[in-house]
Design brief:
Protein name: Sugar phosphate nucleotidyltransferase
Structural class: alpha/beta
InterPro entries: GlmU-like (IPR050065), NTP_transferase_dom (IPR005835), Nucleotide-diphossugar_trans (IPR029044)
Organism: Flavobacterium ginsenosidimutans
Helix content: 25-40%
Number of strands: 10
Keywords: Nucleotidyltransferase, Transferase
Shape: globular
Distance between the termini: 20 Å
Pfam families: NTP_transferase
Order of helices and strands: EHHEHEEHEHEHEEEHHEH
């Protein structure tokens, strides 16, 4: 098992910042949606960020070292989770920050693979260890995060049952789907799947599986693929699924899809804020950082 969790929080949050007419949000919530990183939007009790709940689950799952990748304007993270760049104590979690710098000539960050590459350059010890990676704007369960810690596979991802996701069908249909063999080893990831070929991508249980960017990586073998990640031709970004597939091509049967069937709350756009608040009030009514659980 490993103790390292890298949280991706340096993105531009462009979809969250899009104009929208939402009648169930306060002016303060709209302002936060327009100004803050998605994981810092106050959707929890007493206006605490979504990231509180992800860190809570990470601690329950047994992680100890948390690396949060922030943008160049990410100082607000330090107000919540520690003023130093490295080794802040947040309720027993050791929190460090990595900065995803925007390359010269670009307006926005260069994608999730670039974020992770910059992080492991700043914390090279990760290149000799195993570590997990996830988004800051998704609330993964403690059970899913623990499964990433406990798997013996060198690389892995949580392979979610698409039908268990509590999202509108139109949104679900846009998710990239994973193709797994009979042993749940990753073979391929298909973007923008058409309904005509979905049958070919069902797993051994007859389920269509999607990734929500919850990974475990072998830092030693992944580094070269992070460094050499090509730019996605449509989105003009370097993306972790590309890195993962390139690693699989070079090292077959080293990446297992861990099957899970549960919803993963997601803060992508303003329309998601009320839904996430309702979910947290229902399932995390008494989050208490002083609890020993």
């Amino acid at each position: 098992m490993h103790d390292n969790l890298v949280i991706l929080a340096g993105g531009a949050s462009s979809r969250m910042k899009k104009e929208a007419v939402i009648d169930n949000l306060s002016p303060e919530e709209i302002a936060q949606a327009n100004e803050r990183s998605k994981g810092l939007i106050g959707v929890g009790a007493s206006g605490r960020p979504l990231l509180d709940y992800l860190l809570w689950n990470a601690k329950k799952a047994g992680y100890k070292n948390i690396y949060i990748i922030i943008g160049e304007q990410g100082e607000l993270f330090k107000e919540f989770y520690g003023s130093q760049m490295k080794d802040n104590d947040f309720h027993g979690l050791n929190i460090s920050f990595a900065i995803q710098y925007v390359p010269e000539g670009r307006i926005k960050p260069f994608g999730t693979a670039d974020a992770l590459f910059q992080a492991v350059e700043q914390y090279p010890e990760l290149n000799t260890q195993f570590y997990s990676v996830c988004n800051s704007d998704n609330l993964y369960s403690a059970e899913a995060l623990r499964a990433l810690r406990e798997t013996e596979s060198p690389n892995a991802f949580i392979s979610y049952d698409r039908d268990a996701m509590d999202f509108p069908l139109e949104r679900i249909s846009r998710f990239a789907i994973a193709k797994l063999d009979q042993n749940n080893q990753l073979l391929d990831i298909l973007e923008k799947p058409s309904s005509a070929i979905l049958e070919q991508y069902k797993d051994a249980e007859g389920k269509i599986r999607v990734s929500m960017n919850a990974f475990k990586f072998n830092g030693n073998t992944l580094y070269i693929h992070l460094k050499n990640c090509p730019v996605h031709p449509e989105r003009d970004e370097k993306e972790l699924p590309t890195v993962l597939l390139n690693s699989v091509k070079e090292n077959p049967n080293t990446t297992v899809g861990i099957p899970f069937s549960e919803h993963v709350p997601d803060l992508t756009a303003k329309e998601d804020i009320a839904d996430v608040k309702t979910y947290l009030a229902k399932y995390y009514p008494d989050l208490n950082w002083n609890s020993k659980n």
